[in-house]
Amino acid sequence: MISDITLGQYFPAKSPMHRTDPRMKICLTVFAIVLIFVARNFLSLAVSVLFIGVGMACSKIPLKLYLKSLKPILFIIVFTAVLNIFYGSGDPLVQLGWLKITLSGILNSVFVSIRIVTLILASSVLTFTTSPTQLTDAIERLLRPLAKLHVPVHEFAMMMTIALRFVPTLLEETDKIMSAQKARGADMESGGIVQRIKALVPVLIPLFVSAFRRAYDLATAMESRCYHGGEGRTKMKILKFGHTDWVVLVFAVLALGLFITANILIPPVL
Amino acid sequence: MAFIEVQNVRFSYDTESVDSREVLHGINLSIEAGEFVALLGHNGCGKSTMAKLFNGMLLPTSGSVLVDGIDTQDEARQFEVRSRVGLVQQNPDNQLVAGVVEEDVAFGPENLGVPPLEIRKRVDEALKAVDMYEYREHAPHKLSGGQKQRVAIAGIIAMETRCIVLDEPTAMLDPRGRVEVMETIQRLNREKQITIVLITHYMDEAVQAGRVVVMDEGEILTDGSPREVFSDVEFLKRHDLDVPQATELVYRLAAAGIKLPEIPLGEEECVRLFRRYLAGEAH
């Protein structure tokens, strides 16, 4: 059943990472990604890896799940690693015709692979420990200053909320329509790509029609519950900067200090 | 003055277009605070239009609708009207906004600008009132139809609405969900004195109301207690309307020559009536 798909990759648990303010987590993820890209040598890279490692350890989510999140991009990692091996400079260790493998090439390839892996892990820590609603909420609050520049921040967040709410409903509906069309003899599993796309039309049209009907009902429901945009609106859940967040902040500052020292003291790899 | 006053309301969709058709032809109706009114009628008789007129989602083409003395046409006081009269629609999937039950219930009070702590209190109370408190952190799509409708009702109670208009709330539910919703509505009416306007075409639900208003072709046919309305079976049949099953049974028996002293509305009442009749027969 397609409706079994879980949205996002949120894993509910009670951990310091789950408790951390979602705004903080978003900022930290961006921070970690910047660190990974700015790292010039193995020591500073190790600092950023350690930083993300601590984040993973504090999330109480089994390592297996993190490794699973790497699976879809395994090909990209291997591909860039192999490519990088041949792009080094200096004396060749092995010469295969015009292809040469150098020490710098190997170092490079290891460096880049670690970069990609930690990048994915950093974003996984965020999506594993933050529910979609918390994420939207945090994004709305972080972008609030943009509302002064007439960017429709609230509307954007509302659209995200509604989209997240209706994805499972529409998936379920797609499933139903597909079964209904199959019952009428529609063939969706065989034929070439063009034929398969054509077979989707009788699924998409009813889906669209019903989505518009839902939208109309939803608009009525929202209006009768006095929705009138973001102005004068309050929120039940207020994001609060708690003890955990202060600890996390101090930790991040320490990591930054260590990182800068490492980056300056030791000459770059690349 | 009554809580809701519908005065001489006429309504047509698309007044500008050529094929505009009048749906309501001069409706007069008043509903007192604390009443439980069932609005009955065929498909297309104008009862769903009525539902949207009660909270100003639609405005009358002529005539007026007053809610607690406020004219629904007064745009500046639109929110006052909507926070007094809430609307629950037919499709349980299409009226929940947020991806978490308690956040959906909070949606109304949030729009009204209620302070956060107060919203929390109202949300908890509303969820307890519809018996959905333990599901507060669930995702709506994992709930049953009856549960979703109860969440929708909670979302309206949380706005401290004094009247709930329900437009065929049980039409898409299974029998169990139907019972859940009906019990919730009755409890709210009894314990919280919330005015209920239930639009339905299930006669067995209409019987549970304190007052039944029957509509046909944009007009009000009859208005009275369920017993008054359903005792005139001939009249309802003439307008192609059903009567509750128990009433139908006794009506047919009467036609076959077995006259029972009363007209029952529910099953239990019917059984009691038969028992008494059969006991009398034995003597």
Automatic annotation (TrEMBL), chain A:
- The domain of life for this entry's organism is Bacteria
> Which InterPro entries has this protein been placed in?
ABC/ECF_trnsptr_transmembrane, ECF_transporter_component
Transmembrane segments in this chain: where?
A: 26-53, 73-94, 106-129, 246-266
UniProt main location, coarse: membrane
Keywords tagged on the record: Cell membrane, Membrane, Transmembrane, Transmembrane helix
Instruction: Report membrane topology.
Output: Multi-pass membrane protein
As for subcellular location, the record says: Membrane
Read off the CDD domains from this record.
Answer: EcfT
Q: Which PANTHER family match?
A: SLL0384 PROTEIN (PTHR34857)
This protein's name = Energy-coupling factor transporter transmembrane protein EcfT
**Organism placement in taxonomy:** Bacteria, Bacillati, Bacillota, Clostridia, Eubacteriales
